[in-house]
Every structure is written in structure tokens, then in C-alpha cells.
């Protein structure tokens, strides 16, 4: 019979909470949780606990929320927990060498890509924006680099044609939790086979900016489709409409419409459930869900029922 591991967990968002839940439901002992300090949220800007903190408190696990881990006091407090392992999932703080070396088995990270592809902050979004057909989870032994440590476990996940960053996020959260538990079993059995990353194959998933959501209609419908899906549910693809911005929440290429001659950004057709826009390379894109300036997200059919005059044939978006 194997001995349960004493684990410190470090993470902040929903993606990390899935792995924490798996640990809580496992044989292992989560002896402490590190998460980002509470942040103002909502219209009232009241302090809100992270999903990881909320879950930890539900299970009476001690929570630590240091602003940083570079100080001797914070490092000594962490070391005093006498952990076998620290599991890090989208924590948001850099771990100095003293922290990486404090647990018996060091620190491992659940990363949402097949490393060394998409090291960095936004691997899920970048995989969609790049048109990748697969991604996955890598469990990595952490070192002082940015997602450069030895790979301990990989699990591949296909990217579906209609995936958004939101749907892929949710699927990978489950993949990550399962991969973590399998990795812990290998640690207990002393069967890990670390594999070094090939830096020549590395690419970086830089943080997203709102500006990346601006649609260039001279791109093909396939490229814009990847942009819409890759930036959903945040920061959302958008185009100008009059004096405001029209947010494109869902769209799909229209391959049956061939040899489009209209200027990119022109509305060429409207149907009961979509607005067809001319794109580059003589292609067309159908908008199926959108958000008008100052409005709420709606299906295109509802918008056309109430504001069809905004989307007359020949009108131009993105001017």
C-alpha cells in the first residue's frame, strides 16, 4: 500500500480548482493552499475570493495569500509545512528557487498545452488562434524558467472544429485533473521518467490584449472564425458599427457561398439566423450570435427581429 503524499496546492482560477477538487477527492493530504489575494470584482468592487480559495475553505484547508514569495518570512512559512510535493496550476506568482526546492519532490505544474509548444500565459487561446488541431496537458517538473522544466506526463486532447477557448478550457481542466492524479501515482511508485524539452520546438503563448479582438475583414473567413472562437469568452472579437463596436460572439464560415466579390466587411445576405459578411480571399462568414453597442448578448435571429435596419444588404462593417 502506498503512502499518501502531503501536498501544498497553489492555484487561483476555475481551471486550477478542477485539479484541487481531484486532490481533495484522492487519497492524498492537501495540507495548505496558496492562492492570489482577493481582488475587487463586480459593480460594487467588493473583494472576491478566488475559486481555489472558496473550494479550500469549503474543505477546511488552510489558505495562504502572500503578495509574493520572495521574502524570507513567506519562504520559511511554506517550508514549515513540510510538504512532499507542491502542485502548481495557474497560480499567477513566480516561484523562487527556495520555494521550488522546499518540498521533498519539488514543485510540479499542470500546463494546458503539449510542451514545449505554447509555453506562457495563454496556451488555450493561442492554440485556437493558430488553428492547431490538437492540444493537451503536460505535467512538468518546475524549474526557474518559464515552463521550461522536464516533462513528466502528457495527455493529448483533440481541438474540435467548433471549440471556443471556453469549451476547450473546460475540457482541459478535466484532462489536467486526471493527468495530475496519474502523475502522483507514478511519483508514489517511483516510476517517473522525466523528459527534457526541446527548446528548438518551443513557442510562446503571450498574454491576450483586447486590441487583438479587432477583426480585419480582409482576412479569410477561416482566419476570422479562429479569431472569434479563440477570443471567446474573453476578450471577444469585435468590429465597428456606426459609432460603437459590435461584438461577434459566434460565427461560422460559409463555404457554400463561393467567389464573393463584395468588399470585405460588406453585408451580402441576411437569413433568419445569421448575417453573412464578405471576407478576404472571396470568402464569407455568417454571424450567429452578437452583442450590439450597449446591449446584451443575443442570437442573431433576435437581433434581426428587432434591429434589422442596422444590417441592410450593402452596409459596411469595420469602417
Automatic annotation (TrEMBL):
A GO CC annotation given for this chain: cytosol
Q: Please give the name of this protein.
A: Methionyl-tRNA formyltransferase
Describe the function of this protein. Answer: Attaches a formyl group to the free amino group of methionyl-tRNA(fMet). The formyl group appears to play a dual role in the initiator identity of N-formylmethionyl-tRNA by promoting its recognition by IF2 and preventing the misappropriation of this tRNA by the elongation apparatus.
Enzyme Commission number(s) from the entry: 2.1.2.9
Q: What Pfam families does this protein map onto?
A: Formyl_trans_C, Formyl_trans_N
Question: Member of which family?
Answer: Belongs to the Fmt family.
Any one GO MF annotation of this record? methionyl-tRNA formyltransferase activity
The answer, when asked if Transit peptide is one of the entry's keywords, is no
Q: What is the lineage of its organism?
A: Bacteria, Pseudomonadati, Pseudomonadota, Gammaproteobacteria, Oceanospirillales
Q: Which residues form the Formyl transferase C-terminal domain?
A: 207-307
Give start and end of each Formyl transferase N-terminal domain. Answer: 6-184
Q: Report keywords, A-Z.
A: Protein biosynthesis, Transferase
Q: Which domain of life is it from?
A: Bacteria
Q: Cross-referenced InterPro entries, in alphabetical order?
A: Fmt (IPR005794), Formyl_trans_C (IPR005793), Formyl_trans_C_sf (IPR037022), Formyl_transf_N (IPR002376), Formyl_transf_N_sf (IPR036477), Formyl_transferase-like_C_sf (IPR011034), GART_AS (IPR001555), Met-tRNA-FMT_C (IPR044135)
> HAMAP family under this entry?
Formyl_trans
Catalysis: reaction(s): L-methionyl-tRNA(fMet) + (6R)-10-formyltetrahydrofolate = N-formyl-L-methionyl-tRNA(fMet) + (6S)-5,6,7,8-tetrahydrofolate + H(+)
Q: Where does (6S)-5,6,7,8-tetrahydrofolate bind?
A: 113-116
